[in-house]
From TrEMBL:
A Pfam family annotated for this UniProt entry: Cadherin
Any one GO MF annotation of this record: calcium ion binding
Organism, scientific name: Cherax quadricarinatus
Protein name: Cadherin domain-containing protein
Biological-process GO terms, alphabetical: cell development; cell morphogenesis; cell-cell adhesion mediated by cadherin; epithelium development; establishment or maintenance of cell polarity; homophilic cell adhesion via plasma membrane adhesion molecules; intracellular protein localization
Length: 749
């Protein structure tokens, strides 16, 4: 959707008639007796709300014999003729205003009604702007507050003074400013005071200064009631005595009466009560809405009745109501609880206390206890009539059930009230005796030996592992089992969590099979019962961490550089590349392939055995250097790969490289706490060049931590009787739990 602002220009239509704005009314004026011709005596003024109005003024009827004329455009009324005007004579003209752009028909225009203009020769008394004045004020009007402003016009342009007089009652209640004409309240009003009228009839007289004329006008001031009186009850406290507690609902009990000194709606009263046991009607009669109860509140009801008037804002008054009731034997005994659930040990003996039932009667009666049918014994249980104490009987006890249910009764004696013995009341309760178990069996994981759980490495925290279950042959809370994980010694936190209620075991970390977690993780779950003291059983089992292909193959060197004799035979194994993959099974099985480096033609000379990594010569060598790239790819579902550069330098046929003193160096086992700087292996090679026995060693940095990527080992040359040895020494502390095996490559030149 889209919105567009539209501006509508409203074109005016000349449809409104003009109207006079001259004040005061009726129109009055004076003319000097010797006024010369064309002397202005009055100006007509009219307005028209239409935009294109064209107002013209006309003399409609002339009762003066042509002594005046009206200027059609300006509305000025002027004298005509040279004759003297007569003293005190009234000259009457009827005038109107027309809008000559507001045509009604061919002959008529929109116009004002005819207005009478009275002109008196010489002088005339002042004229009030209104023919009469009226004002309504509230009784709480402030003293000296302005009530109304009256104003008169002097035809002689003299200052006018005003006086105020009461026609009847109320003299001195109001006063008037002699020059301003503002009527003020001279003293406080009280609508409820019978000595003060509600309507004040006043006369305001306007008199010109210096003995001029005067005129009078009626002023009526009405006083209205203000809700300034709250309702008042005839009595502050109403009481009703000896009201039977079993009277029918809706019975009238007593009547209250409130009065309000205000008038009208301010004096109309409604009643309400503060206790929902009762209601009150508009006549003040109080009825009961519910059944009364003499056994509550010390046998009487006390509440408030409120009288509220309909003023704005409303006012209210209150009184206290007290209703005293008479008691009847109408209440049955009430047990402190409907079901009692005591516990008794399964090995309890005779006369053992089981529980005490308690009942009371709101009527004040005494209560007698028993089993249903007024019996004092039920099976192996007995009850005391007056105290409600229940015990095991004084005989052989055999509590072979989980629980026993007893129905007990409470009967009142009716002594509360006259004639109460003829209507006795009975109530019942249930006692469920639970036989408590002795906690002598610990929880047992019956299927512990068959738990074989697996979880995939990198599975998110909270992944399900297995659900364990333990049983406890005890009963009740002694047989309820909760599960927890037993933390392994020297372990920070737990690797698994278990739901205490269900036994669902979930992971508490993300496992790494190739890291410190390893392939198998042991977990111990403990089951604890809720007995006191509690007993516990444990179950230990192994969780297998299954492999995912999350590790790429890693070559044991960052690059391979070897010398190859030029006359090497085709089919000779030249160099073996080796990569390792920490994943398991197919995820860790590696296949090797050759790809070109800079010169694709180098691939024609070599091939690599896919599984062993041996690079084999395919055709005779005829250049000084070759470079190929070996790619190692694992066999995971989503294979991962890595590459290494192999640089082969071709040397002369007579070149004789150094020779190691052993064709194979056996694995060396060392302790993880070996000191830094200590020698772990010494190897030696002899120069193949006659009269040049010096050789140089260096340890090749691999691409993994296991192949010395982080310089965990270093090499130090050592001369000895004309030979040069290579001592491999520890450069950093070792940690068996992090890396269990290192594969080092040493190059000799």
């Amino acid at each position: 959707t889209d919105n567009q602002r539209v501006i509508l220009q409203i074109t005016d239509v000349n449809d409104e008639p003009p109207y006079f704005i001259n004040r005061p009314l009726p129109m009055q004026a004076v003319v000097k007796l010797n006024a010369a011709p064309n002397t202005p005596v009055f100006t007509l003024q009219a307005r028209d709300p239409d935009k294109d109005h064209d107002i013209h003024y006309f003399l409609v009827r002339d009762r003066t014999g042509g002594r005046f004329e009206v200027d059609e455009k300006s509305g000025v009324v002027r004298t005509r003729g040279s004759e003297m005007f007569q003293l005190d004579m009234e000259y009457v003209l009827y005038v109107k205003a027309e809008d000559q752009n507001g045509r009604i028909d061919d002959k008529h225009f929109q116009s004002t009604p005819e207005e009478r203009l009275s002109i008196v020769g010489g002088k005339r008394p002042p004229q009030f702007y209104l023919p009469k004045y009226e004002k309504t004020i509230p009784e709480n009007a402030a003293k000296d507050a302005d009530i109304i402003s009256v104003k008169a016009k002097s035809f002689a342009d003299r200052e006018i003074r005003y006086t105020l007089k009461a026609k009847g009652q109320g003299a001195g209640t109001f006063n008037i400013g002699p020059t301003s004409g503002i009527v003020k309240l001279a003293k406080e009003l009280n609508f409820e005071d019978v000595r003060q009228p509600h309507i004040y009839q006043l006369v305001v007289t306007a008199t010109e200064d210096s003995g001029g004329f005067s005129t009078a006008v009626d002023l009526t001031i009405k006083v209205t009631d203000v809700n300034d009186n709250p309702p008042k009850f005839d009595l502050p406290d109403y009481q009703a005595h000896n009201i039977d507690e079993d009277i029918p609902i809706g019975s009238s009990i007593l009547r209250v009466k409130a009065r309000d000194e205000d008038s009208g709606t301010n004096a109309e009263i409604t009643y309400s009560v503060s206790d929902d046991h009762f209601r009150v009607d508009n006549k003040g009669i109080i009825y009961n809405r519910k059944t009364l109860d003499a056994d509550d509140n010390n046998a009487y009801y006390e509440f408030m009745v409120t009288a509220t008037d309909r003023g704005e804002p409303a006012k209210e008054g209150t009184a206290t109501i007290r209703i005293y009731t008479k008691n009847k034997n109408d209440e049955e005994p009430n047990f402190s609880q409907q079901v009692y659930t005591p516990n008794v040990d399964e090995n309890a003996g005779p006369n053992t206390l089981v529980t005490t039932v308690v009942a009371s009667d709101k009527d004040g009666d005494n209560v007698e206890f028993g089993f249903v049918g007024e019996a004092r014994k039920s099976g192996q249980f007995v009850i005391e009539k007056m105290t409600g104490v229940i015990r095991l009987h004084n005989g052989p006890i055999s509590l072979d059930r989980d629980k026993y249910e007893l129905n007990v009764t409470a009967v009142d004696d009716g002594n509360c009230c006259p004639g109460g013995q003829h209507l006795r009341h009975t109530s019942t309760a249930v006692v469920v005796v639970f036989i408590t178990d002795v906690n002598d069996n610990k929880p047992v994981f019956k299927d512990c030996a068959s738990y074989h759980a697996k979880v995939e490495e990198s599975a998110p925290n909270g992944s399900p592992v297995i659900t364990v279950h333990a049983t406890d042959e005890d009963k009740g809370v002694n047989g309820q089992v909760r599960y927890s994980i037993v933390q392994q010694p020297n372990q920070k936190g737990t690797k698994f969590t278990v739901d205490p209620e269900t036994g669902d075991v979930t992971t508490n970390k993300v496992f790494d099979r190739e890291g410190e977690d390893g392939k198998f993780v042991s977990v111990t779950v403990k089951a604890t019962d809720n007995g006191d003291p509690s007993l516990e059983g444990v179950c230990s089992f192994t969780v297998e961490i299954t492999d995912i292909n999350d590790n790429p193959p890693l070559f044991d060197r960052q690059k391979y550089i070897e010398n190859v004799k030029q006359d090497t035979n085709v089919g000779t194994n030249i160099l073996r590349v080796s990569a390792s993959d920490e994943d398991a099974d197919n995820n860790g099985a590696i296949i090797y392939n050759l790809t070109s480096a800079a010169n694709p033609g180098d691939l024609e000379y070599f091939e690599v055995q896919p599984e062993s990594g041996w690079i084999i010569l395919k055709k005779p060598l005829d250049r000084g250097e070759y470079e190929v790239i070996v790619t190692a790819t694992d066999q995971g579902q989503t294979p991962l790969t890595s590459e290494v550069l192999v640089r082969l330098s071709i040397v002369d046929r007579a070149n004789r490289p150094p020779v190691w003193d052993q064709r194979v160096y056996e694995p060396k086992r060392i302790s993880e706490n070996i000191s830094v700087g200590q020698t772990v292996y010494s190897i030696k090679a002899s120069s193949g060049i006659k009269d040049n026995p010096v050789v140089f060693y260096r340890i090749i940095r691999g691409s993994t931590a296991q192949t010395n990527k982080h310089d965990t080992f270093y090499l130090q040359q050592r001369p000895d009787n004309g030979d040069t040895w290579a001592d491999i020494k520890v450069n950093h502390p070792l940690d068996y739990e992090s890396i269990k095996e290192y594969n080092l490559t040493v190059r000799v030149e």
